[in-house]
Amino acid sequence: MDTFTIGGDLEVHRLGFGAMRITGDGIWGPPDDPEDAKRLLRRVVETGVDLIDTADSYGPEVSENLIAEALHPYPDGLVIATKGGLRRTGPGEWPVDARPERLRDCCEASLRRLKLDRIDLYQLHAPDDRVPLEESVGALKALQDEGKIRHVGVSNVSVRELARAREVVEVVTVQNRFNFEERDSEDVLDACRQANIGFIPWFPLSRGRVVERAEPLGRIAREHDATPAQIALAWLLARSPVMLPIPGTSSIEHFEENLAAADIDLSPEAVAEIGSSKQG
Questions:
Q1: In what helix (H) or strand (E) does residue 3 lie, and over which residues does it extend?
Q2: Which of 31, 36, 204, 220 could in theory staple to 245 by disulfide, Cβ–Cβ 3.0 to 4.6 A?
Q3: DSSP tag of 75
Q4: At 186, which CATH number?
Q5: How many distinct structural domains can be found in the chain?
Q6: Nearest to residue 58, comparing CAs of 15, 101, 110?
Q7: Is 110 helix (H, G, I), strand (E, B) or coil?
Q8: Would residue 36 count as lying in a domain?
Q9: Do 277 and 216 touch, CB atoms closer than 8 A?
Q10: What are phi and psi of 17, to 5 degrees?
Q11: Model confidence over 45-91: pLDDT tens digits?
Q12: Nearest CA to 270 among 225, 223, 229?
């Protein structure tokens, strides 16, 4: 699998794992079988995946706790990326709270849950309309200066917001919604490519039903003896060398199916055809 170096010193394989789905329904509470979730996390690492993305809001706290329970002490080279800046008020509810004091509390609590002295990649989960972006990002810069954060990322930002954040701190990753169906962040992806900033597309498979019935994904999948979802992931990897997809699941079987997408070599013609066939 191809690699990308985050921040100049964290080399990771380009297909990672998103740990949002190891929680309960509505990303709320624990999963039905916590031991099964921990087996999945251990399998993720066994396969060589070395980028796991989570957030304090997943559960809340559940995903981070399960990662620590399953994987600590962490193997060398494993990058655990987490995020702060959202509150959870119920299943499916995600109000933004990116006040500097809140972000400090979030980061320090994540350090304790993950049993880390320093978080390799800490990301602002979303800009807060009530707080200047510079203040939110400045809080992460202060935590970085204190040695609690190695690298800083941002999420759910525009090109202009990315530029504002970069005036305050070196931004090494951007995590925006992006997939075969939804490409509103094309301009942000292009800005990341120009600056060699990692782009982490969240919700990389969109709505599974859309991917499964979409053309030309289905036809190209048949040509590669693959699934349309695998082709959608392979297309993301081919779309840009800074792309770092993090498909998530609660199933080992589904995880291994997603991982196999990294072995699919799409032709330039197939990449172009998929790129020109935006759905929705």
A1: strand 3-6
A2: 204
A3: P
A4: 3.20.20.100
A5: 1
A6: 110
A7: helix
A8: yes
A9: yes
A10: -135, 130
A11: 999 999 999 999 999 999 999 999 999 999 999 999 999 999 999 99
A12: 223
